[in-house]
Amino acid sequence: MFPERLTFSIADAVNAWVDALVTHYGDLFRQFSDAVLSIIVALEGALRGAPWWLVLIVIVAIAWHATRRVVPTIVIGALLFLVGVMGLWDKMMQTLALMLVATSISVLIGVPLGILSARSDRLRAVLTPLLDIMQTMPSFVYLIPVLMLFGLGKVPAILATVIYAVPPLIRLTDLGIRQVDREVMEAVTAFGASRWQKLLGVQLPLALPSIMAGVNQTTMMALSMVVIASMIGARGLGEEVLIGIQTLDVGRGLQAGLAIVILAVVFDRIIQAYGRPRQEVRS
């Protein structure tokens, strides 16, 4: 047995810190939670209230715009139609709303942090170990602090998903900008471009494949949190899988799992297509 006099625990210090956050900033957290919840409820209401065929047409149109290929577009439409045939369309819309909000927040956080990291070696040195911890920490651990701060519901599920899913986007945005050819940047500098012109006109377009790969990874990691998020009040396909586990209903769990896989395939194909150069997509 390890000597007790040499042991210590960070649990009390962390709990005290979280309690202080709740005490001093509880109202702020509540306002933030209400704002995010209003967005989720509005988006979910729009998706669930719209005719299924209209949502299907919109997603197929986005797939066509991304891929410019007939077969992948038809496959995406057929897969989504299959989810409806299995009776999980409404559940998929709930999950889709959750995913869109979580991915949007991840992009709003991840891309700017990736850009700042690419511009500052010091910031990168600080972020790297933090991102390592975020990616290796068991996903269940993220549920504890968000539950204490926001309670049960969709908001803590989204925040736990964002914490788990945002690291690859930060890393790949940083990598993409750092890999922009120095000769290209020197030429742009010689023409007198400002920092914003370099960033918006050169670095981000050239780093777009890497950034979109980060968005893709973030989306896939967010989808992997769907079932875990259902444990704290997030509904949708994850809830169906959870009920299947609790009731030992293999068919119900497998059916919902297949729907999650289909949603992952749709996201993956569309995001990958947008990440490729347009001339490559057309060919």
Descriptive overview:
The protein is mostly helical and 283 residues long. The N and C termini lie far apart (65 Å). The chain has helices spanning 11-49, 52-67, 70-85, 89-119, 121-136, 143-150, 154-165, 167-178, 182-190, 195-224, 226-230, 237-246, 250-275, 278-282. The longest helix is centred in the first third of the chain and has 39 residues, at 11-49. The chain is globular, with a radius of gyration of 21 Å. It contains 14 helices and no strands. α1 (11-49) crosses α4, α3 (70-85) runs antiparallel to α13 (250-275) and α4 (89-119) runs antiparallel to α5. It has one domain: MetI-like fold.
- Relevant CATH superfamily: MetI-like
CATH fold annotation: MetI-like fold
Order of secondary-structure elements: HHHHHHHHHHHHHH
Query: What is the β-strand count?
Result: 0
- Main sheet makeup: none
| Share of β-strand residues | under 5%
Overall helicity: over 70%
Structural class comes to mainly alpha
Which term fits the overall shape?
globular
CATH architecture: Orthogonal Bundle
Distance between the terminal alpha carbons, to the nearest Å?
65 Å
By DSSP (H or I, 4+ residues per run), the number of helices equals 14
| CATH class placement | Mainly Alpha
Number of domains in the coordinates? 1
Radius of gyration (CA) equals 21 Å
Low-pLDDT windows of residues: none
The pLDDT mean sits at: 86
Membrane topology: Multi-pass membrane protein
GO biological process, one term: glycine betaine transport
Subcellular location: Cell membrane
Keywords: Cell membrane, Membrane, Transmembrane, Transmembrane helix, Transport
